[in-house]
Amino acid sequence: MFESLSDRLGGVFDRLTKQGALSEDDVRTAMREVRVALLEADVSLPVARDFVKRVTAKATGAAVTKSITPGQQVVKIVHDELQQVLAGEDGIPPLKIDNPPAPILMVGLQGSGKTTTTGKLAKRLKDRDGKRVLMASLDVNRPAAMEQLAILGGQIGVDTLPIVPGQTPVDIARRAKQQAALGGYDVYMLDTAGRLQIDQVLMDEVAAVHAAVQPRETLLVVDGLTGQVAVEVAQEFDAKVGVTGVVLTRMDGDGRGGAALSMRAVTGKPIRFVGMGEKMDALETFEPSRIAGRILG
Ligand code: GDP
């Protein structure tokens, strides 16, 4: 489907061999290919441009060693830089879930995979970290969404807050907090309502819940296949409630995952996990080097 960057650059550098430094011309030609590869991987144009500018500086004058071809060398420079941007300057910190009960607020648009990810993360915290987790759905307008979380809870062996009709999202969040404290839970996860697109009602609701529980982590769940839209959604949620981390779902799909680069570069938020399928164990820690490799093809 896609031609990999290594293949592209192999072609560009076919003429070039031996030792020496890459000339500005060589680098310029190579960088055109890098830019196309990034755009094909769904990296946004400004991010791709900026990235290429920085890599150009590093590639110009880089010594061409005998052992590897110039194409591979440029690919390595690009790969390392991608990895660095994806990891961010501070790296990816662990979730702040000490001081029980720690609230985790899950936010995002409807259909992004928020409820599924809530279940996946709860299961992970239980299985890997031995945490006692309580989950609560705040989606008062969609009883089916509340049921969905309860069913997931049953499947993965994680408690859900009993559903009480007629409560507001803030009421439910407060009840979850109380129940988590009384029941000796380490973490309580609040699955907020999503909407098909961002609107004031959704944002006000999320902000009210945020103010009520002061979450330790506010994780934004976005569909990794939606590229630029995912980045815009992240900016809006961040401006309103302050996002502490991002989960990119549907990374098991066909896309190259360029949204990850745009997300990190534009919002500065750490990507913590990637969704790799519908099953409850299909949640992986975000690995910058793996995504860098995938973007390059
Ligand atoms: P919500 O409306 O944001 O709560 O979305 P849901 O959690 O209900 O997920 C919507 C659909 O996406 C469901 O069919 C999920 O099984 C599916 N889904 C969620 N995460 C992933 C993922 O990482 N990969 C794939 N392939 N499907 C996912």
Primary descriptors:
elongated; binds guanosine-5'-diphosphate
What are the low-pLDDT stretches, counting only 5+ consecutive residues below 50? none
- Profile the largest sheet: 8 strands, mixed
State Rg: 22 Å
Helix content: 40-55%
Structural description of this entry:
The protein is α/β, with parallel strands linked by helices. It is built from 11 helices and 10 strands. α3 (45-59) crosses α4, α4 (70-87) crosses α10 and α5 packs parallel to α6. Helices cover 50% and strands 14% of the residues. The strands form 2 sheets. Strands 5-4-6-3-7-8-9-10 form an 8-stranded mixed β-sheet, sandwiched between helices. Strands 1-2 form a two-stranded antiparallel sheet. The N and C termini lie close together (10 Å). It is elongated. Residues 108, 110-116, 194, 249-250, 252, 275-278, 282 line the site of guanosine-5'-diphosphate. It comes from Jannaschia helgolandensis. GO terms for molecular function: 7S RNA binding; GTP binding; GTPase activity. GTP binds at residues 108-115, 191-195, 249-252. It is found in: Cell inner membrane; Cytoplasm.
SSE blueprint and pairings:
Elements lengths: L4 H8 L7 E2 L2 H17 L4 H15 L3 E2 L5 H18 L14 E6 L6 H16 L3 E5 L5 H14 L2 E2 L8 H14 L4 E5 L8 H14 L3 E7 L4 H14 L3 E5 L8 H10 L3 E5 L7 E3 L2 H9 L1
Parallel strand pairs: 3-6, 3-7, 4-5, 4-6, 7-8, 8-9
Antiparallel strand pairs: 1-2, 9-10
Helix pairs in contact: 1-2, 1-4, 2-3, 3-4, 4-10, 4-11, 5-6, 7-8, 9-10
This protein binds guanosine-5'-diphosphate.
Guanosine-5'-diphosphate binds next to α5.
